[in-house]
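Summary for the steering committee. The consortium agreed at its last meeting that each partner would contribute one worked example illustrating the joint modelling workflow. Our contribution is presented below. We chose a case with several input lines so that the handling of multiple components could be demonstrated. No manual editing was applied between input and output; the record is shown as generated.
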Amino acid sequence: MIRHMAAFFLLATFCFAALPAQAADKLTVMLDWFVNPDHATLMIAQEKGFFAQAGLEVEMIAPADPNDPPKMVAAGKADLAISYQPQLHVQVDQGLPLRRIATLVSTPLNSLVVLAKGPIKSIADLKGKKIGFSVGGFEDALLSAMLGRVGLTLKDVTLINVNFSLSPALISGQVDAVIGAFRNFELNQMDIVKHPGRAFYVEEEGVPAYDELIVVANAKKLDDPRLRRFVNALENAAQFLVNHPKEGWAMFIKGRKNLNDELNKRAFRDTLPRFALRPAALDHGRYRRMAQFLKDQGLIKTVRPVQDYAVELK
Amino acid sequence: MPEAARQIIWRSLISFGGFLAVWQALVWITEVEPFILPGPLLVAKSLAGHLELIGGHAAITALEIVLGLLCGSGLGILSAISLSWFPNLRRWLLPILVVTQAIPVFALAPVLVLWLGYGLASKVMMASLIIFFPVTAAFLDGLRRTETGWLDLAHTMTAANPGAGRWAILRHIRIPAALPALASGLRVAAAVAPIGAVVGEWVGSSAGLGYLMLHANGRMQIDLLFAALFVLAAIAVAIYFTLDWLLRRLLPWQPDN
Amino acid sequence: MPAKNLEPSNELPSVGITLRGGNLSFADKPIFKDLDLDLPAGRTTCLLGPSGVGKSSLLRLMAGISPEATARVLSADDGGTITGRIAYMDQRDLLLPWLNVLDNITLGARLRGEAADRHRAMALLRHVGLDDVATARPAALSGGMRQRAALARTLMEDQPVVLMDEPFSAVDALTRLRLQDLAAELLVGRTILLVTHDPLEALRLGHQILVLSGEPASLGPALEPESLPPRPADDPALHSLAAGILRELAG
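What follows is the complete predicted structure of the assembly.
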């Protein structure tokens, strides 16, 4: 009797174990924030079926705290996370086992924003002013470099953490400038409420260029075949978006009616030229320059070899 | 040192030591990563290494909590007295008071911060809001439940001038009789005020332990985050026990059973 | 002990109280209806009756602390109202726990916004034997001592009318006898209504004894013993009278 039951259970286990080979592989991707136009290529890969073609069933999760996704991947609780290149340097320096495997947006989006009609016309005008920021762990370094170029230091300004209320803080006059505003998003937001802003792009003000949005995986799981398939699907989506931008928009808002508004429309248009056309490709020199910059700013302790934190999957 | 004080210190050290042991054991057994939950040794190292930084922010948060306690309690006491004096006011205002308690503070916080700015004021206001209802409710309850025998006696003594008598009864009988109830409300307030201060800092600030915790989280310095959290807990505990001691001394006629 | 300073002050002659048409109902059931009562000036009237008949309610009506009870007439025989001329004493001492004994005694003055006469208060405490605990809080006193403090507070009020609702029922028998003697000595000359469930106490202290009974309650004829109160507790005649009253109440 027992032997029969054991045989039955063994058989059942093999059957169930065999099943996943038929169905698509599941993959959890933690987004960096709520779904917004920066995630267009991901949405297209989902809606146009590029993930399905790659044999993947991708679940995308929006986090409550943007600092959580890389931690979840490092702890093995999620497969992939959308994160930021500068934060990756800092996280790896703190010992998190992460690797960048693809790029989503290959230009910086971060900018210093002031009111267009306000008194600040140049970085030098920031002396003695209040600057609002969202905690990303990177704003100090950005501002230090930008201010340093015009002979100012962080001590010449007051930094205030406004959490994620960047535009309201600026518009209400509570702060004179904000850093951490995304040029494709906050600028449009301010335009729509008739308080246009003027942006100073960080990479034009003394900060090395970097990839704003990247895909990170756990360092110990790089041999997972699903990862390469994921990046392939992403590449197909990026290509599709370049060739068919109108259809790309339709796919972005498919099933997400709340995203079909003026702000997202404008942001989508402004993000279009910034998506990585070759998501898998890695520019070692750029990553090395950013690492050196961060070390000089005191945000990381050592400049590691690039392959210790960023790879091109085979 | 008196025996009782020595016993309290011993007991606190032992329970604290026990808590540390359980924490460390948890970290060892679950093998959780240090960037999710660091062990007590890592946190202690971070605390020692950032003493000045943490101390500076701690002083600011402590000030926010204490000011919040003073403002919130002061307002609560005045409200309770007003509501007990004007029964009609009570009928209209009590539902509103309950609503202030029901709204989660982090929903109000951004509005407060935008209105009062990013400095001390918004954090003090947050802490005050969080404790306002518990203090008001506790004190009002005590004011309304005065022993009827005392009230009867007082009415016979002030029958010649009942108008003035009502105020005298409030001042000399109702309020002192309600002080133990107020003390309970204040104890709850002391335990809860730190939450208001920290939530206020999370929404917008340039200093304080909440701000430091956010910053450390952004930099993946989780050991520093926990060190700041530990200091926050220590401040909350210190404030609670100081208040408790103060209340015992001010209300000596209410010994524990 | 000479009872100086304990007779009502010269400005306050004794005052008799008249109650006509006292009414009290509870949940549509009348407790007493159209009740008349006279408290002769300067005399002690003891009110007896079974539990729950309405004795306390009647006393509270006269004290002005029973909003549910009404009376057609409630006045003093010198033409004024009795409002503000009453001192009240309950079976609970009603001492405020946060005040010391001296401050408790002088509570009335404080509530009325007057300066408290501390000399007189200390003298009263001496008379009731509590001067050595004047600065102690009620929690440090025994039940008997607390009731003595309540008595001193009642005296401190220096009112012509004193209404006492079973003031000695919560203490042991020996303390009760002592308190009865003390009260009789210190309250001499005032108009007193003493509600009690103890016929012996009524007979010891009362110039006239009334029994409240029935549903709705009514007052029986007054019993006026020959001798003056306080009458000795060991008088067998008193005890048999008390037994008789008890039989009447029970039967």
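Residues 133 and 207 of chain B are 27 Å apart (CA to CA). The mean pLDDT of chain B is 91.
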